[in-house]
């Protein structure tokens, strides 16, 4: 008997933090709420995310290839692949190998090049690591950098104030590296936070929401997860970006109303029902 229904599936490569909402602990419920099966590949396990004063972690790099090999033996396939934070050049090489092994004609690869924020790179991202991430970008269908990461990937000096034409030029350079769709997130414009949607062959558009509160851990993971789930579900890219931006704003506002400390991220669980609409 022919199978009547096959659920969409996304493989996501990222770390797992036991406390503090980010990475896989955010992506799994968000993607699942959007009616897509989330298949995680943990790169490391943290007791809590690194925004707290101390933490314990276990690097799982040596486990990643044997883990993936079992999926190959079982002939698993995926409608989407997401790459999140990667802590070494070897991990980036492993992700490239995974994409080559598992990307089919209709598989959508979303790369969130998590390298830094507010004009500064994270400690692991040496010049060699940044160069390695530039190699990974060519495999993306959709790329979701913030302004800092977009600057790193295009060798553009970072600054606080941008003209729209400058951001568009950066997005064009990113698309020239391989992705057909780029969203540059977190562009600060006075009382607004703006995202640029750039699709090859289409007019770029800016999507703005009123800025509330400060940045919180995990919001970038929510964003890339929503964009990926929508992509495999056939939702228009620009509609998806707007939906993700509005959802994150609501999560931040709700967390502020509950007086949740910023290191604990956002209370997104109360609002997951919105993703089913």
The overall pLDDT average reads 95
Output the helix-strand order: EHEEHEHEEEHEHHEEEHH
Structural Rg? 18 Å
Q: Structural class given helices, strands, pairing?
A: alpha/beta
Identify the CATH homologous superfamily.
Ribokinase
**In what order do the strands lie side by side in the largest sheet?**
3-2-1-4-5-8-9-10-11
Portion in beta strands: 15-25%
User: Could you say which overall geometry the principal axes of the C-alpha atoms support?
Assistant: globular
The figure for the number of domains is 1
Main β-sheet description: 9 strands, mixed
**How many individual helices?**
8
CATH domain class: Alpha Beta
| Approximate helicity band | 25-40%
Please give the CATH architecture. Answer: 3-Layer(aba) Sandwich
Report on this model:
- With 277 residues, the protein is α/β, with parallel strands linked by helices.
- It has a single domain, classed as 3-Layer(aba) Sandwich (UDP-N-acetylmuramoyl-L-alanine:D-glutamate ligase).
- The chain has helices at 24-33, 61-73, 89-102, 127-137, 147-154, 164-176, 219-232, 237-257, and strands at 9-17, 37-46, 57-59, 80-83, 108-111, 116-117, 120-121, 142-143, 181-189, 192-199, 205-210.
- Helix 3 runs parallel beside helix 4 (127-137).
- The model has no long low-confidence stretch (mean pLDDT 95).
């Amino acid at each position: 008997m022919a199978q009547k229904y096959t659920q969409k599936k996304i493989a996501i490569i990222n770390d797992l933090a036991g406390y503090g909402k980010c990475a896989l602990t955010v992506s799994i419920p968000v993607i699942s709420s959007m009616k897509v099966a989330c298949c995680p590949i943990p790169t490391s396990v943290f007791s809590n995310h690194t925004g707290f004063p101390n933490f314990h972690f276990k690097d799982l790099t040596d486990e990643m290839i044997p883990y993936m090999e079992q999926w190959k033996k079982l002939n698993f396939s995926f409608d989407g692949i997401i790459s999140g934070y990667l802590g070494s050049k070897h991990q980036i090489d492993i992700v490239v190998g995974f994409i080559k092994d598992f990307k089919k004609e209709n598989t959508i690869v979303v790369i969130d090049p998590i390298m830094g924020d507010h004009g500064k790179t994270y400690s692991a991202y040496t010049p060699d690591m940044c160069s390695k991430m530039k190699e990974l970008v060519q495999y993306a269908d959709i790329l979701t950098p913030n302004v800092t990461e977009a600057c790193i990937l295009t060798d553009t000096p970072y600054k606080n104030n941008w003209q729209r034409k400058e951001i568009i030029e950066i997005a064009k350079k990113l698309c020239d590296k391989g992705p057909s769709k780029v969203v540059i997130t977190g562009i600060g414009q006075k009382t607004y936070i703006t995202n640029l949607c750039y699709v090859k062959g289409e007019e770029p558009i800016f999507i703005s929401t009123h800025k509330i509160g400060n940045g919180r851990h995990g919001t970038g993971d929510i964003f890339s997860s929503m964009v990926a789930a929508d992509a495999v579900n056939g939702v228009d890219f620009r509609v998806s970006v707007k939906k993700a931006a509005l959802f994150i704003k609501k999560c931040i506002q709700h967390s502020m109303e509950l007086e949740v400390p910023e290191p604990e991220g956002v209370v997104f669980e109360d609002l997951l029902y919105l993703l089913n609409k």
